[in-house]
Amino acid sequence: MNEHSVQIGIFIGLTALVAILTWWKCRHIVHSKDNSKDYFLAGGTLAWPFIAGSLLLTNLSAEQLVGMNGAQVMVVAWWEFGAAAGLLVLAKVLVPMYYRYGCTTTTELLEHRFQNASIRTIVSLLFLTGYLFILLPVVLYTGAVFMQSMFHLRLSIFVIALLLATGGLLYAAFGGLRAIAISDTYNGVGLLVMGIAVTAFALAAVHWDLSGLPVERLTLWGDAQSDIPWPTLLTGMLFIHIFYWGTNMVIAQRALAAHSVREAQKGIYAAALFKLMTPLIVVLPGLIAYKLYGDVGDIAYGKLVADVLPPWLSGAFAAVIAGAVLSSFNSCLNSASALYTCDIHVKYFNANADLRRIGQLVAVVFTLGGLAMVPVFQHSRSIIATLQQLNGLYSMPVLAAFLAALLFTRANPQAIKIGLLFGAALYAAFTFLWSPLHYIHLMFITLVSTLLLMALLNRLLPTPSKKSKGD
């Protein structure tokens, strides 16, 4: 049996094992009488280890491993350090509010705070647009790049993405969040162990010597030409993480699936601790790859893994990477299903709809849409920078709405709606027409401008009566 066959065999075996263990864990669970809570929030039964594992693996996927290692610079570690701060805001500020209002989706908080359903709908539509055109295709593309470079596959990026998408769809459509979170935890443990093993083997390949690397690649102090210039740490960086970890349904959905605030917080704190360690997995290998191969970009990690790991270990690692890709993909599908079903379909089309059935249909539609967008990202210079930059089209306007919900005692819904549209338009202008500053600065400017406009309009427009909860 040749090495390639060993890799493939171990990959298939471990992938199947996780699926079987997930099915075994789920089969005797008592389901909640609340269909939406059962399918979209695992019936509120997730214990903190599964919340931590799912949070970690939903974030730590191929777009992080491929994209951050592909940058081949130390400065991108700020994305991991900042994540810990975002998780603390989720645990201490937002999770207690989500549970106080009994939210199934993060956007439900906005409806309660503003007493207006259409604000929730607008924000949901912004999330859904971001998932369809940005997050889903990036997850599939980076996963396909890794698999192709590691196994030296002759299949095209699109075909590999199609195979990954099919696996993710099966988890999301038939298992719901419970199956996703359980499989995430199994794969998460494997990813941490195997990720550290890759780093150790890679260091051994360079004799534990990183000398000779350019100084600018080893610094955490980014200059003006860096992916993360140091002044951006004082402007938009923190708010990007508050949006991503605190309000983004793909992430926060896990924290909503515990039986109590305390259980959710324990899972979040554990995830924050792990994020401080992940530069060992998502940054250091990229630097080692630079020493071995030079500036090879997004193929750095897959090439490194293929070269430094023995065949049986590389097959095992490919299995956990595939699990990480499936985690991010199916998590996004489940969140999209929850947002559309709970925030749009039930409200505007059919209040008595079969929620599981609608959620499954949404998952299929978003799978096809995400696949169709994969070729667009094949020409990105830096996939991680492209992902963060495009996310600003909806992240900062949405974060402004959540901050207004926290800061404003009473708000005119029209002020929030106008602000949302203004923020999206402003950042679109910065992105596609005129970019005078680094995109992280522009995200901060968008956030502040949007929030100030909301506050100004809130003072100028009449305050609605408390009874008003419609559009």
What does this structure look like?
By secondary structure, this protein is mainly alpha-helical. It has a single domain (3-379), classed as Up-down Bundle (Sodium/glucose cotransporter). It contains 20 helices and no strands. The chain has helices at residues 3-26, 35-40, 48-59, 62-71, 78-100, 108-114, 117-151, 157-205, 215-218, 237-247, 249-255, 261-277, 279-282, 284-293, 300-308, 311-348, 355-373, 383-407, 413-432, 439-460. Helix 10 packs across helix 18 and helix 18 runs antiparallel to helix 19. The radius of gyration is 22 Å and the shape is globular.
Number of helices: 20
Total of domains: 1
Q: Determine and state the CATH class.
A: Mainly Alpha
N-to-C CA distance: 65 Å
Oligomer: single chain
- What is the alpha-carbon Rg in Å? 22 Å
Give the structural class.
mainly alpha
Shape: globular
Task: Let me know the largest β-sheet.
Answer: none
Number of strands: 0
**The CATH H-level homologous superfamily:** Sodium/glucose cotransporter
The percent range for strand residues is under 5%
SSE arrangement:
Elements: H1 3-26, H2 35-40, H3 48-59, H4 62-71, H5 78-100, H6 108-114, H7 117-151, H8 157-205, H9 215-218, H10 237-247, H11 249-255, H12 261-277, H13 279-282, H14 284-293, H15 300-308, H16 311-348, H17 355-373, H18 383-407, H19 413-432, H20 439-460
Helix pairs in contact: 1-8, 1-16, 3-8, 3-11, 3-12, 3-16, 4-7, 4-14, 5-10, 5-12, 6-7, 6-18, 7-8, 7-15, 7-16, 7-17, 7-18, 8-14, 8-16, 8-17, 10-18, 11-16, 14-15, 16-17, 18-19, 18-20, 19-20
